[in-house]
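hiii, so i know i said id send this last week but things got crazy w the move. better late than never?? heres the sequnce for the chain we talked about at the cafe, plus the structure i predicted for it. fair warning i was half asleep when i ran it
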Amino acid sequence: MRYWITLTHCWMFFIILDLAFASAALTYAQERPPIAPVSRDALPAIKDAVEAHLGYVTDYCLDEYGKDETGIWLGQIDIRTSKLPSVQSLKDAKTDSTIWPFGNLLLDQPTMVAAVEMGRRTGCKCYQDSITRYLRDQLKRMKPGTSDSFQVMLTSDYDLIRDQFVGNENSWPNWQYLPAWEILNRESPEAFRVHLENMLQNTNEILQRVDAPKDRSESAEANKSADSGHPIRTLAAERWMSRSSTVSTLLWMANHFESESDSLLAQALPLAKLSEVDRQTFHQLPLGIRANWLNAVTSHPSLAPQLSMIQQQLPLPESANSVGITSKLNKPEAETAGASPDRFSFDDDCRYAEVCLTAWKQTHQQAWLDETKRKLLEIETRIIEQQSLFTRAETYGRAIHLLNRYSQLTNEERYKKRADSLANQAMKDLYEPRLGMFRSRTEIDFCDSRDGIGFLLLALLALDGDDPTEASSLRF
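okay and structure toks below
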């Protein structure tokens, strides 16, 4: 009898247990409905798209190659796998693209600024943690005796296969934008200070090598270099780019290190002072170099006299060969070989209009607003007439940001509508909802940092909330 009771109890126990599991499963199903397949046409909200993309970049698209796995982000991502592209993926794409198995800190700076902003909006530490690991893993891989870690990190590619930094002929030395010093300084204040001292020394050496006669002939020299088909490396161009970066950095520090502000300004002001020859040659420079210099002198109120001096000569005459010069100066040779000069000149038009808008915001001088409007009308015409320009993330990002910012500062609503329209087009062309990532060019399922993907992310975030670049040394 005891055996029969025990067996019955066991049988009842299993029945009750099955019912309990079924009830729990039903409750879970009610709370967590099954995930339905996402249609390609079902685009998410902008914030959700940017958040998903940054989640993949910071958590999954990391260096798992070579002997060492690191937290360094992949410079080129096959968005179908979250890994480096394969030879087969290139064949499937049927484009002229090549595998680029590198990471590049300077190219990742815009995406880092976007990630910091996403962390602020969501409260998630994951974004900052990913950036911290990225930078620490790069710093650990400096060769013994390296005197300037940030110089290596910002001007070299990191070979993900060979686990080492490698130079390249292009090496991104002519910065179109200042690095996000607030991010780099947070991770290594010592490396930042060393890099600043070297920037100062290098800039002073460049200035000492340039004499007045060479200055006066710099436009002819630049035109000759552009016609030859080689990337421009003229001493005059190098001087303006180096001065711009160094002055911008010193003035960013003056704004953020109050106890050192006076000494930092004392170092920046002599570098920012324009000679008579400088004033004559400034207006012959390519538009992109002018934009860099104006970004520098709008970095601190102490340089307002420089803005006034330039403002008195507005509108600025355009250099006859500025398209060819700028495209070759600011872009790697390998990239410009198969790219349209129109698109590069469009990007520089946006950069120049952005900084003219900044100058107007700071000085309230009508000439700066007039110059912004003049350039903006050209940009708007090209947006309407040259849809072929919009194949790349950076072009979308720069145009969206400019139109949106201009609308915010002037209350001209039609520019906000045009920015929204471009953003919607960028979402359709570049975002893949089934994969949760942006491609960086319309014709291929790759996200390549060389295509300026970070600028698109920043522009979309600014359209959806605060502008992340307002709190950064990096500007559009």
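btw The beta strands are 76-78, 102-103, 157-159, 164-166, 431-432, 437-438, 446-448. thought thatd interest u
miss u guys!!
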